[in-house]
Design a protein that fits this description.
mainly alpha, 3-stranded antiparallel β-sheet, 58% helix, globular
Length: 177
Amino acid sequence: MAKPLELPFDPIARAAEIWERRFGPPSAMAAVTSIMRAQQILLGELDRILRPHGLTFARYEALVLLTFSRRGALPLRVIGQRLMVHPTSVTNTIGRLEKQGMVIRRPNPSDGRGTLAEITGRGREVVTRATEDLMTAEFSMGGYDDAQLSEIFGLLRDLRLAAGDFTRDDEGAVSRP
């Protein structure tokens, strides 16, 4: 777990009180600030769990994505789209995984200009062990039950839908995991 701040008050609640006096309703500001802080906490904790495997959460996500593909290989462009990151981030992530022997790059046979990233046997072994550790730690979300996790997912999924990350399912409904 990240080093506790141990403040004698909730800084986001305090900011919300001041916000309300100065600017008006604080609900949106307090919610977004809480989400951003939660992201910092979770990323720090997930990276701590993955560090013994030589991974960050970004590298772990790339390896998992490759294991989800039929052939264990995907074009870098597709990796960027699926992980919703900039091409430079994909290049950096795959480069680091390649140096660690978890991924190899090779020309894309269906696109002469493109590059495929392919997971290696070592990459598969590491992602399997790392996943076991994350599952044991419940992805650092052990303080929530399944219904709460589903609710969090739904609330944030609606935000992502509104941002255009994806479109509604064929039936027009938004499905949950």
